[in-house]
């Protein structure tokens, strides 16, 4: 046989996959599948890869547009290794010594060291809480992460073999330690006592778009990742995650089509047989959907019976983000900064019960220029200023955002003791409507569904469609949830299902 005939017959015999969307989970799925011999085509509605993990540039400023907190970098490295490539020279990052600067309403200022010993010493110094209490809390966080983390975050929950193993038995024996019957806030109050320290650890419920006053105490696994494991910043900013994974996928031979929104998943006799994009039917052995699960069922498969209970789960929070190019340097601000709300319960009531934003919300400021000087012109700073917001249910966002901008500037200028507004020379705004419009995330939620109930983990859509063969799901709206690490896990679980189903 001639060489090109060999290649032709090889490509005919390879399993073909179409991936809908090139968010972080779509990219990770493409890499994993192509690496095990599947022939992958990614169809992306936008003209660029990465979904929420993208960046904005203007006037010499660069901002990471979406995620800014980077934990568990080994999950990114794992993709290079799965592809048989060395990450060195393709993707680099460094560990941060201080995770975040915290500004409290009473004037207290806390440096949240990522090292747990240093954090314990700092909270003793600033908040007057015995260091031992923080040490014990972080040890508890590590213990419960080791007990349940792998089962809940790295395995499909709808398969019997996930539950029939020793680690689950061990977790069940220690179920009392998981604080399943209490909220995260109640757990933190009981274990930590001091209100400002409680607020510090309560905030971690927002890492997956939830309220600490409703999410279960088991979310106390998150501090283990931030403190015992650490937080990191990629060289070149968060966008380098997208860029390096896109480059890796291309190098492996994944084919990408941009400005190619998928309008239909073709299902015949309960089997996915391909998709329709730009009015063209593209047959495929299997389909991996990185689109949000709600529009995926409603718009791409309107004839199929949708899992209505799953689709009606409460969405995670969304956000309003101001990207500001500021014509001066502000020393008090670090890479990550939090300016806490005075009335924290009111902030979450506003988001999850009233569909609005409180007048004194917690403000997050990210300034990558502190670590990456080329992200702003000399003597200037690139601020990403984010406030958690309710999902989009048709609120008057123009009014909300105009009012919020004033509230945010007043609060920041008060804490920093210097004017900011006159120095803003470039401004962009991202908000629930535009997040929804740019990534098809239902209601503009950042993390799919919220974790505001102890059953939330069981009410996320699984990574293999239960009723449609050859159809798989990855990304923040399905199991195990949103945020970069979990999206990467979703791609791994979906790929594991495909390997098993296709004997790859
Ligand atoms: C402002 C903001 C801040 C955040 N902060 C953090 C953080 O600090 N840390 C963290 O870990 N996470 C953070 N997140 C969450 C994180 O960004 C997401 O969980 C993650 O990026 C979602 O990835 P995904 O794979 O689910 O897909 P998405 O990023 O949602 O991308 C989906 C892709 O699919 C494409 N698509 C959709 N429908 C179709 C279709 N029909 N046809 C073709 N293509 C389609 C979209 O265009 C998009 O490119 C943040 C998110 C935002 C917006």
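Q: What amino acid sequence fits the structure above?
A:
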């Amino acid at each position: 046989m001639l060489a090109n005939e060999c290649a032709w017959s090889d490509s005919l015999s390879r399993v073909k996959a179409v991936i809908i969307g090139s968010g972080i989970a779509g990219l990770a799925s493409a890499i994993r599948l192509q690496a095990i011999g599947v022939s992958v085509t990614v169809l992306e509605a936008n003209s660029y890869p990465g979904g929420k993990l993208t960046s904005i540039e203007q006037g010499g400023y660069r901002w990471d547009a979406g995620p800014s907190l980077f934990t568990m970098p080994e999950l990114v490295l794992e993709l290079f290794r799965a592809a048989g490539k060395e990450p060195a020279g393709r993707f680099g990052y460094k560990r941060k010594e201080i995770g975040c600067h915290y500004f409290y309403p009473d004037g207290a200022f806390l440096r949240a060291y990522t090292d747990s010993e240093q954090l314990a010493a700092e909270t003793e110094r600033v908040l007057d809480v015995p260091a031992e209490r923080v040490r014990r809390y972080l040890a508890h966080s590590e213990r419960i992460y080791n007990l349940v983390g792998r089962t809940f975050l790295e395995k499909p929950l709808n398969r019997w073999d996930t539950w029939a193993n020793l680690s689950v038995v061990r977790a069940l024996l220690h179920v009392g330690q998981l604080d399943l019957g209490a909220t995260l806030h109640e757990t933190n109050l009981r274990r930590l006592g001091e209100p400002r320290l409680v607020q510090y650890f309560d905030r971690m419920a927002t890492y997956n778009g939830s309220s600490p006053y409703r999410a279960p105490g088991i979310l106390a696994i998150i501090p283990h990742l931030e403190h015992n494991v650490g937080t990191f910043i990629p060289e070149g900013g968060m966008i380098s995650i997208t860029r390096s994974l896109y480059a890796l996928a291309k190098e492996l031979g994944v084919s990408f089509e941009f400005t190619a929104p998928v309008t239909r998943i073709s299902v015949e006799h309960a089997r996915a047989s391909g998709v329709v994009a730009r009015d063209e039917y593209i047959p495929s052995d299997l389909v991996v959907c990185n689109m949000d699960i709600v529009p995926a069922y409603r718009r791409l498969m309107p004839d199929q019976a949708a899992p209505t209970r799953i689709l009606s789960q409460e969405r995670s929070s969304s956000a309003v983000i101001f990207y500001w190019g500021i014509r001066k340097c502000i020393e008090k601000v670090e890479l990550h900064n939090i300016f806490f709300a005075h009335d924290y319960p009111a902030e979450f009531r506003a988001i999850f019960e009233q569909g609005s934003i409180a007048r004194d919300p917690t403000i997050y400021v990210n300034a990558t220029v502190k670590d990456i000087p080329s992200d702003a012109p000399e003597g200037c700073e690139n601020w990403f200023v984010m406030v958690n917001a309710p999902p989009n249910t048709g609120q008057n966002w123009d009014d909300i955002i105009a009012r919020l901008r004033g509230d945010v500037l007043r609060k920041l200028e008060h804490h920093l003791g210097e004017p900011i507004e006159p120095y803003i020379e470039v401004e962009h705004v991202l908000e629930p409507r535009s997040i929804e419009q740019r990534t098809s995330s239902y209601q503009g939620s950042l993390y799919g569904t919220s974790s505001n109930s102890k059953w939330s983990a069981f009410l996320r859509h699984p990574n293999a469609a239960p009723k449609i063969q050859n159809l798989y799901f990855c990304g923040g709206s399905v199991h195990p949830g949103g945020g970069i690490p979990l999206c990467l896990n979703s791609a791994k679980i979906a790929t594991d299902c495909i390997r098993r189903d296709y004997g790859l």
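Q: And what stands out in the fold?
A: Residues 1-9 have pLDDT under 50 and may be disordered.
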